[in-house]
Write a structure and sequence with these properties.
This protein has three helices and five strands, in the order αβαββββα. By secondary structure, it is of the alpha+beta class. The chain binds coenzyme A. The site of coenzyme A (COA) has 16 residues, from β2, β5 and α3.
């Protein structure tokens, strides 16, 4: 068992590092159909997840894995893209960060549409880019316990898929 990571006295709940960002979507973000490019939505979500992970661990972080991104509705030029994000789970050096993405027309009060959800695996790294331990996540509410439980399921599946693919490839040629 490794030593607990110094967290500067602060209790690192999901609420401690939660981040929300809002960005207007402009013409340069459009694809050939005139809607916002899916990659632009992922970029905003990744930036938000990076801010959350950095706030949780206080270190540099890198995106190691993106999974389960589901696009539910298109985002249009002229929408404000809202991203809300929090840490769902932490391992030794990795953190799963969930991001909810919503859009609303900039000039109308029609309410926000849920357009996508994504899960990012962020890893805390040192100056050399090597993984370093992160502080414990203190999960208190029933909702956060559900997110942590579901994040553990996704982690199990990620690792199992990776192991199965690697086993099927056999030893790496020298
Ligand atoms: C992410 C990175 C630091 C991991 O380095 P590594 O030498 O593989 O380190 P480890 O094997 O110790 O993995 C670190 C953590 O990531 C997790 N991880 C890495 N790849 C994973 C995968 N495919 N699935 C699930 N977990 C994974 C490990 O389980 C480990 O978690 P833990 O410490 O909480 O148990 C390294 O691969 C890297 O720098 N990647 C590039 C990141 C980057 O540039 N991102 C931006 C892309 S534009």
């Amino acid at each position: 068992m490794s030593e607990p990571v110094e967290s500067g006295g602060a209790v690192r709940t999901p609420a401690y590092s939660r981040v929300s960002l809002a960005v207007p979507m402009r013409l340069p973000e459009a694809n050939f159909s005139g809607n916002v490019h899916g990659g632009e939505v992922i970029k905003q979500a990744d930036s938000t997840a990076g801010a959350v992970a950095r706030r949780h661990c206080g270190n540099r972080v890198v995106t190691a894995y993106v999974d389960d991104i589901v696009f539910l509705q298109p985002v249009r030029v002229g929408d404000i893209l809202h991203t809300s994000s929090q840490v769902n789970w932490v391992g030794r050096s990795s953190m799963e960060v969930g991001v909810r993405i919503e859009a609303e027309p900039i000039g109308e009060l029609t309410g926000r549409r849920h357009v996508a959800t994504a899960y990012f695996l962020m890893v805390a790294v040192n100056e050399e880019g090597r993984p370093v331990p992160v502080p414990e996540l203190v999960v208190e509410t029933a909702e956060d316990q559900r997110r942590q439980r579901e994040a553990e399921i996704r982690r199990t599946h990620r690792l199992a898929r990776k192991a199965e693919i690697e086993a099927g490839r056999g030893p790496t040629p020298a």
